[in-house]
């Protein structure tokens, strides 16, 4: 599918890239074979997102909004985090500049959107209490040794006893976990977990611990463990002070999105969009323009 949008020709490859990104890396052919209903939804979304992006980019050009190669390089690094060959090149830089221009024009178009005041935030919090009700939560860290054979089981017990000994000498749990656990990193932290998050054997042991108490060595289907309960919070309504900043940000971003939707819908209505004769290529075929 090739389309002319206000005189600018958009080739099928652009729609194809958007489709693959939306589908989590799957090609249109793969999605069509595996999930026909999802294919049609993704196809429509890819087409709409691409047209919106093109129209916003055209607005950026008209408004004199630009992006530099240095800004594109910073965006590339934040996206891929390296200078790998597959994330470099003229095409990538051009694409990044285009994306940055769209971001900038979105910020420009929504610059007058009002942030919610305290009363608005509090009213939305009161009127949507169900959305702020949380389950009982436990803050947990653990050390795990994976053991599938009897020999590995015996070795795991010895390793965990060494870890246990260091912890009883007031060594940092995070440091000991990173030294002895088979799942190293993050100091063994599992973060805040709810009931049903872990296997039953793990929850039965850990959820009955007292705060800041170390468990004895116990076994689950994943191996042998030592665990500590750092903190516990009961089920209930999250305090407003805990959610105020995130809620205000959500309201503000939602308002900006509503305005952007209105603007892009208007741009769509006023745009001159024409399908170009190109029967050999389509998003469904997944072919790229040579």
Protein described:
With 290 residues, the protein is of the alpha+beta class. It has two domains: 2-113 and 245-276, Triger factor/SurA peptide-binding fold; 136-234, Chitinase A, domain 3. It has helices at 12-22, 28-34, 36-63, 69-80, 90-109, 118-127, 150-168, 173-180, 200-206, 240-270; strands at 2-5, 8-10, 133-134, 137-145, 189-194, 213-214, 218-220, 223-233, 236-237, 273-276. The strands form three sheets. Strands 4, 5, 6, 7 and 8 form a five-stranded antiparallel β-sheet that branches. Strands 2-1-10 form a three-stranded antiparallel β-sheet. A hairpin with a 2-residue loop joins strand 1 (2-5) and strand 2 (8-10). Residues 83-87 and 280-290 have low confidence and may be disordered.
The helix/strand order is: EEHHHHHHEEHHEHEEEEHE
Instruction: Give the percentage of residues in beta strands.
Output: 15-25%
The largest β sheet comes out as: 5 strands, antiparallel
CATH topology-level fold name of the largest domain: Triger factor/SurA peptide-binding fold
The overall average pLDDT, rounded, is 90
Q: How many domains comprise the coordinates?
A: 2
Can you tell me the CATH architecture of the largest domain?
A: Orthogonal Bundle
Structural class of the secondary elements? alpha+beta
Shape: elongated
N-C termini distance: 14 Å
Number of helices: 10
Q: Supply the CATH class of the largest domain.
A: Mainly Alpha
What share of the residues lie within helices?
A: 40-55%
State the total count of DSSP E strands.
Answer: 10
- What Rg is obtained from the alpha carbons, in whole angstroms? 27 Å
**What is the subunit organization of this protein?**
single chain
Give start-end ranges of low-pLDDT stretches: 83-87, 280-290
């Amino acid at each position: 599918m090739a389309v002319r949008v206000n005189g600018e020709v958009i080739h099928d490859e652009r729609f194809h890239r958007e489709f693959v990104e939306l589908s989590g890396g799957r090609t249109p052919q793969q999605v069509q074979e595996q999930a026909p209903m999802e294919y049609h939804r993704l196809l429509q979304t890819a087409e709409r997102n691409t047209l919106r992006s093109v129209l916003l980019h055209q607005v950026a050009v008209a408004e004199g909004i630009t992006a530099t190669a240095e800004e594109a390089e910073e965006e590339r690094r934040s996206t891929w985090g390296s200078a790998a060959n597959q994330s470099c090149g003229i095409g990538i830089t051009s694409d990044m500049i285009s994306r940055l221009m769209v971001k900038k024009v979105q910020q420009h178009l929504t610059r007058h959107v009002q942030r919610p005041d305290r009363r608005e935030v509090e009213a939305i919090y009161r009127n949507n209490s169900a959305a702020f009700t949380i389950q009982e939560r436990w803050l947990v860290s653990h050390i795990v040794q994976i053991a599938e054979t009897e020999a590995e089981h015996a070795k795991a017990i010895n390793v965990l006893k060494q870890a246990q000994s260091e912890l009883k000498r007031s060594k940092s749990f995070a440091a000991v976990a990173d030294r002895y656990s088979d799942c190293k990193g993050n100091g063994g932290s599992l973060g805040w977990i709810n009931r049903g998050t872990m296997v039953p054997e793990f929850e039965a042991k850990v959820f009955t611990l007292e705060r800041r108490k170390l468990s004895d060595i116990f076994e689950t289907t994943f191996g042998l463990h030592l665990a500590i309960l750092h903190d516990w919070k009961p089920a209930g309504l999250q305090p407003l002070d805990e959610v105020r900043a995130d809620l205000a940000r959500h309201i503000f971003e939602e308002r900006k999105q509503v305005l952007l939707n209105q603007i892009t819908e208007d741009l769509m209505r006023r745009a001159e969009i024409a399908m170009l004769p190109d029967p050999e290529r389509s998003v469904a075929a997944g072919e790229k323009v040579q």
